[in-house]
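Hi support team,

I've been running sequence recovery on a batch of backbones for a student project. Most finish fine, but this one hangs at about 90% for roughly twenty minutes before it completes. I'm not sure whether the input is malformed or the queue is just slow. I've pasted the structure tokens below so you can try to reproduce it. Let me know if you need the job ID as well.

Thanks,
M.K.
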């Protein structure tokens, strides 16, 4: 396990309000872009020095990220980015493939034009974020889009299960997709999902979701 504090490209928030939220956003960005690495210990006091704030909002922000599954507490030391092995990614992807595509097919049979109208702005937000390589906005819009899509199938317990699974894998490979110029193509699939929902084409939506979820292993990992 790596110790010692890496110097990250973090902004200073010493004169800003809502420090906890802004620090959490910056830390999420550092995790997503790979600046914060699995296996290295990060302490709230050391990060606070880089932010130019007191340790309290940094510690609170890190605990927010713990709840989201992005980092974990290392007792008496600090925090570290949550790591996921190849085998764990395989298992998570397998479970998601069992749950999400069939739920999408069900949603297509129940969706109203009003439902699709609510989803389209989120799909566009994902496309816009991909166009500017804004990974944090991409992740936020992507999470909301898929939660709402699955909610249309009517099984809220399934939505919660998938949300937890996605939280464990949504970081992996995004930066690589950006580097390879594939993030835009992945984003465009959300617009296609809206079109298939509007058409009530459950079979095609199920097939697209299988491809989309497959990015977790074929491209993201």
């Amino acid at each position: 396990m790596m110790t010692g504090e890496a110097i990250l490209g973090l902004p200073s928030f010493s004169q800003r309000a809502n420090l906890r939220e802004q620090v959490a956003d910056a830390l999420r960005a550092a995790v997503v872009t790979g600046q914060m690495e699995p296996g290295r210990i990060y302490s709230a006091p050391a990060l606070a020095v880089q932010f130019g704030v007191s340790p309290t909002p940094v510690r609170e922000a890190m605990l927010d990220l713990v709840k989201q599954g992005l980092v974990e507490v290392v007792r008496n030391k600090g925090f570290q980015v949550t790591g996921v092995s190849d085998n764990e990614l395989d298992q998570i992807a397998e479970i998601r493939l069992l749950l999400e595509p069939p739920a999408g097919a069900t949603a297509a049979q129940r969706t109203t034009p009003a439902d699709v109208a609510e989803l389209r702005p989120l799909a566009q937000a994902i496309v816009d974020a991909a166009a500017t390589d804004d990974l944090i906005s991409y992740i936020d819009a992507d999470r909301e889009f898929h939660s709402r899509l699955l909610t249309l199938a009517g099984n809220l317990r399934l939505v919660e299960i998938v949300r937890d699974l996605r939280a464990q894998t949504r970081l992996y490979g995004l930066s690589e997709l950006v580097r390879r110029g594939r993030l835009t193509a992945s984003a465009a699939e959300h617009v296609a999902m809206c079109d298939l929902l509007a058409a009530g084409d459950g079979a095609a939506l199920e097939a697209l979701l299988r491809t989309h979820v497959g990015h977790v292993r074929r491209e993201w990992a």
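--
Follow-up from support: It reproduced on our side and the slowdown came from queue contention, not your input. Strands lie at 71-74, 78-81. No action needed from you.
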